[in-house]
Amino acid sequence: MKTTILKTSRLFLLLALLFSYQAEANPTKEDFSKPYEKSFTVTDNAKLSINTEFTNIKAVNWNKNEISVEVTVSVDAKDKNKAQDKFERVMVDISGNSNEVNVETSISSNFFGNSNNNQIEIEVLIYYPENIQLNIENEFGSCIFGNISGSVKADISYGDFRAQNLSHSDLDLEVEFGKIELERFQSGKVNVSYGGFTANAVSAIHLSSQFSNNRIEYVNHLELKSAYDELLFGEIDIAFMNTEFTSLRIDQLNKHLQLHTSYGSFNLRDIAPKFELIDIESEFTGVSLYFNKEVSFAFEAEIDMGDFKYPKELTHITFFEKDMMDLSLKGYIGNAKDQA
To answer: Is 339 exposed, middle or buried (CB count within 10 Å of its CB: 0-12, 13-18, 19+)?
Structure first.
């Protein structure tokens, strides 16, 4: 019994010494913050330029001809002197005039030299009128905006870009290792890599995507280039698509589709009775098309090393030729005999 007590006592002593050593090696740190704030009266269609890193941005609409910028840098340190040393290694610049406002943040290369002493947060809060023109580059941080009626050029990496309505015809968005989430996208181009693009309504878009998950509820005019993606479109009027190694689904097609697809899958769940054209070129891809019962159309199909299934009770075949692994056929469904 005495031996057990001795061992237990030694254990408590060792734990106490270890705790004391850790407390000395990792002294208690405090949070310190440094604010920056400027406001500018601006004209209509003023330009807001943002170039930041390791920064989270929240931008809110208001009904003033003014852009207000608040930047808060927060660090943890043992004391004020240590905190000040960290603040000096963070660059914050807010400048501008009535036509343009610039916001910049950056961190010196030696800030992260000690992995145990590198906690930092840079938060930006912006109030702005809806009619600005936005030019933003942000790395390692996310951005949230309201409505913007002016042009938008955004280049985001390792972070997300979210906004409500982007209603200009000159939109240019690019994100890498992040997501774009919008309510409405008027017209322009989007480039996504290793992330995703989501929008409820799109008028016209040129979408280039790879290794991403994308979803658009409604798009009037789409030009798509895709590789290694998961794509879901709710409703499309007109689309020109080129995909490879991509899973593609369209819930409803209203007018026109031209698709070249390889090494993937394609599922078109509903086709409007008055659609104009469907032109599909497929290689090593499973294709499924579902037509409305009221539809009438003529078709041509050429299949190499594949199969073509159709509702035989509704289909009239006017030409059929099979040679080894190749299949060619023409025909019509419904009242489209004159088109065949």
So the answer is: exposed
